[in-house]
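Postdoc handover notes: sequence design on the structure in folder B. Input tokens:
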């Protein structure tokens, strides 16, 4: 039984490592409404990230996305995804503001 468990764990780890290499190439972009000082109205949560990953063909539970707190500012983030006890991948997440072009031209 122990040998079987070791083989199963090794197989799961190999699958997780393969998925980790695929995830490291993924880039997610979120557009949110922005207020003053580039703070977002709302935020980007692990659920949002999991939903967009699912749309790209990856089935990852939101609880495996290690986001300490929701992303509330514009920027580029590397979010860790724990795929296995020993395998963690990082997904590049970019948060952009959705300022209309007319407002941007008026401020310029």
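Designed sequence:
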């Amino acid at each position: 039984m122990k040998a079987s468990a070791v083989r199963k764990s090794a197989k799961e780890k190999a699958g997780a490592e393969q998925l980790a290499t695929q995830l490291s190439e993924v880039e997610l972009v979120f557009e949110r409404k922005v207020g003053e000082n580039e703070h977002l109205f709302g935020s980007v949560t692990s659920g949002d990230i999991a939903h967009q990953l699912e749309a790209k063909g990856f089935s990852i539970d939101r609880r495996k996305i290690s986001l300490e707190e929701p992303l509330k500012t514009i920027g580029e983030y590397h979010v860790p995804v724990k795929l296995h006890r020993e395998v963690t991948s990082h997904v590049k997440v970019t948060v952009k503001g959705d300022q209309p072009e007319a407002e941007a031209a008026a401020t310029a």
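Context for whoever picks this up: The first strand starts at residue 27 and ends at 32. Don't rerun without checking with the PI first.
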